[in-house]
Every structure is written in C-alpha cells, then in structure tokens.
C-alpha cells in the first residue's frame, strides 16, 4: 500500500469514527459531564471520566492511535458487549498503559513542560493496528 493509499484509508476510518462518536454524543446529550461508568454500560476503564470526554478519548487516544474504526473492538450498537477479542485485548493494553503511567513514569523527572511523562496507545502503535509493525526499523 502506498503512502497515499494509507492516508486515504486513515481518512475514511476517521470519518467512520467521527460519525459514530457524533451519534453516541447525540444519545448522551445532557449527560456529557456525568461519569462514563454511569452513562454507559460495562465501562471498566476510564469509568470516572466524563462521558463526553470518554467518547473523545476512545476516538482520539485509541481509534486514531491504531487507525481503527470503533467496530474493530465493539459490536455496533451493542457497545457494552464483550464478544470481540479486540475489546478484551484493548482493555489489557489500557491497563498496561495505566500501570506504566501510574507506577513507573511517576519516578521519572518532569519533562520540559514540567509534567510527569506519560504514554498512550500511540506511543507504540503509531497509527498501526499491530504495534510490532510500528516498531520495525
């Protein structure tokens, strides 16, 4: 796949995610600032995050970092379902990321912005669904 083809693919996946996020935001209208764990069913990670921010984080921090659509991990319109292996894997990866951020990176000196360094999905994935592909020279 050429660089141009990859860009078109990423744009189309981004458009699908944006449409899904817009639809979900419409469903939770008026509840955007309530905890995600109270607004959505079966939230196990980021449950204290405001629901509107949760949807944005799922889009930007997970979907965009992996160049994936929501349905890579979720069953469409059954977001609470745990039927897909991708969702189970993503939860493990999110727990790993949280552990690195909260247990290891807190030992590091502040970065140039004076903040504790943090990692996210994009740190390893870099826009690839398979992080191994991102780490090849």
Characteristic terms for this protein:
137 residues, mainly alpha, Photosynthetic Reaction Center, subunit C, domain 2, 0% strand
Mean pLDDT: 91
Q: Any idea what the CATH architecture is?
A: Orthogonal Bundle
Number of strands: 0
Gross morphology is: globular
Count of discrete alpha- or pi-helical segments spanning 4 or more residues? 6
Question: What is the CATH superfamily label?
Answer: Photosynthetic Reaction Center, subunit C, domain 2
* Amino-to-carboxy terminus distance: 18 Å
Q: CATH first level: which class? A: Mainly Alpha
Biggest sheet, open or closed, and with what strands and sense?
Answer: none
Q: From the alpha carbons, calculate the radius of gyration and give it in angstroms.
A: 16 Å
CATH topology: Photosynthetic Reaction Center, subunit C, domain 2
Helix content: 40-55%
Q: Any low-confidence stretches, pLDDT <50, length ≥5?
A: none
Describe the structure.
- The structure is a single chain.
- The model has no long low-confidence stretch (mean pLDDT 91).
- With 137 residues, the protein is mainly α.
- The protein has one domain (3-135): Photosynthetic Reaction Center, subunit C, domain 2, CATH 1.10.468.
- The longest helix is centred in the N-terminal third of the chain and has 25 residues, at 3-27.
- The chain is built from 6 helices and no strands.
- Helix 1 runs antiparallel to helix 3.
Write the layout of secondary structure elements.
Elements: H1 3-27, H2 36-39, H3 51-66, H4 85-104, H5 121-125, H6 131-135
Helix pairs in contact: 1-3
């Amino acid at each position: 796949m050429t660089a141009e083809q990859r860009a078109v693919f990423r744009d189309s996946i981004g458009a699908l995610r944006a449409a899904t996020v817009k639809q979900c935001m419409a469903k939770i209208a008026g509840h955007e600032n309530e905890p995600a764990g109270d607004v959505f069913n079966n939230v196990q990670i980021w449950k204290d995050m405001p629901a509107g921010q949760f949807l944005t984080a799922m889009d930007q921090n997970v979907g965009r970092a992996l160049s994936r659509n929501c349905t890579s991990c979720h069953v469409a319109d059954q977001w609470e379902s745990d039927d897909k292996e991708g969702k189970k894997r993503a939860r493990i990866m999110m727990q790993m990321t949280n552990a690195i951020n909260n247990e290891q990176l807190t030992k590091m000196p502040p970065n140039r912005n004076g903040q504790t360094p943090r990692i996210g999905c994009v740190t390893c994935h870099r826009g690839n669904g398979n992080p191994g592909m991102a780490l090849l020279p």
